[in-house]
């Protein structure tokens, strides 16, 4: 969901996990001139066609081939990963975005899937405090953003993939703690 805390969560996890990189779907938006406009004059940014998805898949696959020399900036984790021993060979890629699980070429790549949700009122309020380039036009949230979120969420709920739904109204600390613990458990399983 837009303004659900995806980027914030990803950035905080990156600081806590070993050899962790982030690829953000927002980096793959097409220029405004290439984004379709509907009959109401809304730029259709909340659809897959507004993104260079093939380029995103290529970036992810390139990282997977050689994560240690991916060119992405990796910081030493603040949490020194006391929960994990010998993490030099562990590389984690967080891919964050709003239309990740509805794009079939990506579905075979995920080890874990998290989906942040928000109620309409909270989402609309958060969205109204953000400045976008280009700016949201009047009625854009109700006319395009929210309906597209509901459409893709509905599609996801009907798909057979494993997704952990997260309540975006919870505190950032609670969300971070839950996802971090879940990732640590997954990494421990890999070590067994």
UniProtKB/TrEMBL annotation:
Q: What superkingdom does the record give?
A: Eukaryota
In terms of SUPFAM superfamilies, this protein maps to: P-loop containing nucleoside triphosphate hydrolases
Q: Name any Gene Ontology BP term.
A: pyridine nucleotide biosynthetic process
Q: Does Acetylation count among this protein's keywords?
A: no
Q: GO cellular component annotations, sorted alphabetically?
A: cytosol
Pfam families per record: AAA_18
**Hey, which pathway is this one from?**
Cofactor biosynthesis; NAD(+) biosynthesis
GO MF terms held by the record: ATP binding; metal ion binding; nicotinate riboside kinase activity; ribosylnicotinamide kinase activity
Which reaction(s) does the protein catalyse, per the Swiss-Prot or TrEMBL entry? beta-D-ribosylnicotinate + ATP = nicotinate beta-D-ribonucleotide + ADP + H(+); beta-nicotinamide D-riboside + ATP = beta-nicotinamide D-ribonucleotide + ADP + H(+)
Keywords on this record? Answer: ATP-binding, Kinase, Magnesium, Metal-binding, Nucleotide-binding, Pyridine nucleotide biosynthesis, Transferase
InterPro entries xrefs: P-loop_NTPase
Tell me the protein family, please. Belongs to the uridine kinase family. NRK subfamily.
What protein name applies here? NRK1 kinase
Q: Which organism is it from?
A: Turnix velox
By which gene is this protein encoded?
A: Nmrk1
């Amino acid at each position: 969901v837009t303004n659900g805390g995806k980027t914030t969560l990803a950035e905080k996890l990156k600081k806590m996990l070993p050899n962790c990189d982030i690829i953000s779907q927002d980096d793959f938006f097409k220029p405004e001139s290439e984004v379709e406009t509907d009959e109401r004059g809304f730029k259709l940014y909340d659809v897959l066609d507004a993104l260079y998805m093939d380029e995103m898949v290529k970036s992810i696959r390139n990282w997977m081939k050689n994560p240690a020399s991916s060119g992405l900036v990796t910081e030493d984790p603040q949490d020194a990963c006391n929960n994990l021993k010998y993490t030099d060979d562990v590389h984690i890629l967080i891919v964050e975005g709003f239309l990740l699980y509805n794009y079939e070429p990506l579905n075979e790549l995920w080890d874990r899937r998290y989906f942040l949700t928000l109620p309409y009122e909270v989402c609309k309020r958060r969205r109204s405090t953000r400045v976008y380039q280009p700016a949201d036009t009047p009625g854009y949230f109700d006319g395009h953003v929210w309906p597209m979120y509901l459409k893709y969420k509905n599609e996801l709920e009907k798909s057979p993939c494993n997704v952990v739904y997260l309540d975006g109204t919870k505190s950032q600390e609670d969300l971070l703690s839950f996802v971090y613990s879940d990732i640590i458990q997954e990494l421990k399983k890999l070590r067994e």
